[in-house]
Amino acid sequence: YDNGRLIAVIPFVAKVMDSCANSRIFRPPNPWTMLVLGLLAELHPMPDLKLTIKFEVEVLCKNLNKDLKDIKPSSLFKGRQVVKDGNTDWTSRGGGAGPPPLLPSPLPSPSLATLSSLPPCLVLSGLTLGCGVLGGCSRAGCAEAAASSA
Predict the structure, then answer these.
(1) CA angle 140, 143, 145 (to 5 degrees)
(2) Residue 64 CA from chain centroid, whole number
(3) What pLDDT does residue 95 have?
(4) Rounded to an integer, what distance in angstroms lies between the CA atom of residue 37 and that of residue 69?
(5) pTM beyond cutoff 0.90
(6) CA–CA distance from 103 to each of 14, 47, 86, 96 (Å)?
(7) What are the pLDDT digits (tens) for 5-60?
(8) Could you tell me if 27 and 64 are in contact, meaning their C-beta atoms sit under 8 angstroms apart?
(9) Which residues contact 56 (CB under 8 A, 6 or more apart)?
(10) Three-state secondary structure call for residue 35
């Protein structure tokens, strides 16, 4: 909850709890099962909680044939403050749009000196590996480029 790991823990817990529906011992109203469901029921209505976490709780309740409204929420998180900035469990609201998405860095453009040293057929095709890739070329420069890249 404090460290931003609910995004990984809640799906795991939900998957384990799914098997409780088929268990003679652990299906609701087992006290242990109801305690875990109560904890999840407390998390579910929290504002700014990621929708994927809320969805996992809803799907688990459906699989266990329990209505989320009928589960008594625990009070474990009552009064606890969580830092939502940079925490992956919470959506950011307000002024900022959050951290920028991670994009791959662009490939460096070849310099004019590099392009001028290549045979014309390689420059036009956009390949820099030599014409051996294209099946060979009769030009002397292409044969050298293909031999040097091999």
Answers:
(1) 110
(2) 27
(3) 44
(4) 11
(5) no
(6) 32, 29, 18, 19
(7) 888 999 999 999 999 889 899 988 889 999 999 999 999 998 888 899 999 999 99
(8) yes
(9) 10, 11, 14
(10) helix
